[in-house]
Design brief:
The chain is mainly β. The chain has five helices and 16 strands. The protein has helices at residues 34-37, 77-81, 144-147, 157-160, 278-286; strands at residues 8-12, 15-19, 39-46, 49-62, 68-75, 95-101, 110-116, 138-141, 171-176, 190-196, 209-213, 224-234, 240-254, 257-258, 268-269, 272-277.
Length: 291
């Protein structure tokens, strides 16, 4: 049995943290928000040449014993291919590079991980929605040896079903690396907060997505979108509660630009971003079978 599977779960500020058996509770030494350690820059490489940079985050699935034994890197389809879903173009790269934090209290201690994106036969190794092929979301299962012996910080299905009520104008926080700008010494993301800009319970334009009003930039594609409550918040039954709660709302994809047909008139960004709903992550993770 892997060392990872011998870990125990501890609830820290509403986030599930896998802490190796025998370590001290993290609550007494918290210096970094757990969600920051669940987020990583993702670099697309074509052999040895870096092609682009996006964002990803870690999502874990529990086995029947309640232990997290499968961990995915979640990001956008266009982050791992260089193209939007459905475009019949050759992928821009063949592998990705990202980071795992080794010590919550020493965030500069990281492990660099490189994973192939395709099998020897050229088959993609990621999971993508068959029901919604237009969804710009992929899950790449991490080999257990990648995180063996590491206290992994991951989002789980409990974060998706958290009881924070989400409405238009609710705060929405994105953790990412705009144009690669971040705390590169510690590989920690930038937190940017905006607001939900469409009806979150309705699929925007008949796709499993909603909009956020936020200033976001290239490099943030694939980042987690969170609702964060500190103190008083409204739950799904419209009852006011108190506490520290985090809800995973989805995966940020990009911002539409209105192209002008008028000569000399610049294209316009609406400062609205697409977020693919977290239910897609849950669906793909539940249906995953290790190859």
């Amino acid at each position: 049995m892997l060392t990872y599977m011998k870990s125990r779960s501890v609830l820290v500020c509403g986030l599930v943290v896998l802490v190796s058996v025998g370590t001290q509770p993290a609550e007494a030494q918290v210096t970094v928000e757990a969600a920051s350690l669940m987020t990583t820059p993702v670099y697309l490489f074509d052999h040895d040449r870096q092609v682009s940079q996006g964002t990803g985050f870690f999502y874990g699935v529990k086995n029947l014993s309640g232990v997290i034994d499968t961990v995915f890197l979640v990001t956008n389809y266009h982050v791992v291919t260089g193209h939007s879903p459905g475009m019949p173009l050759r992928p821009d790269g063949d592998r990705i590079v990202f980071y795992l934090h080794l010590n919550r209290n020493e965030p500069s201690q990281v492990k660099q991980v490189a994973l192939p994106l395709y099998s020897d036969a050229g088959t993609p190794l990621w999971e993508q929605s068959l029901e919604h092929p237009e969804a710009d979301v992929v899950l790449l299962a991490m080999p257990p040896k990648t995180f063996a012996g590491i206290a992994m910080y991951v989002f789980t299905e409990e974060h998706v079903t958290s009881d924070i009520k989400i409405r238009p104008t609710s705060s929405a926080t994105l953790l990412g690396y705009p144009f690669g700008f971040s705390d590169t010494t510690n590989q920690l993301p930038v937190w940017k907060t905006g607001h939900v800009a469409s009806e979150p319970q309705v699929d925007f334009q008949d796709t499993p997505a909603f909009l956020v009003d936020v200033s976001a930039f290239p490099g943030m594609s694939g980042c987690p979108v969170l609702a964060v409550a500190n103190g008083v918040y409204e739950d799904e039954t419209e009852v006011m509660r108190t506490g520290r709660v985090v809800r995973l709302l989805g995966v940020f994809s990009g911002m539409p630009v209105m192209h002008s047909d008028t000569p000399g008139q610049a294209d316009t960004s609406l400062q609205l971003g697409y977020v693919w709903k977290a239910a897609l992550i849950v669906e793909l993770a539940r249906g995953y079978r290790r190859r």
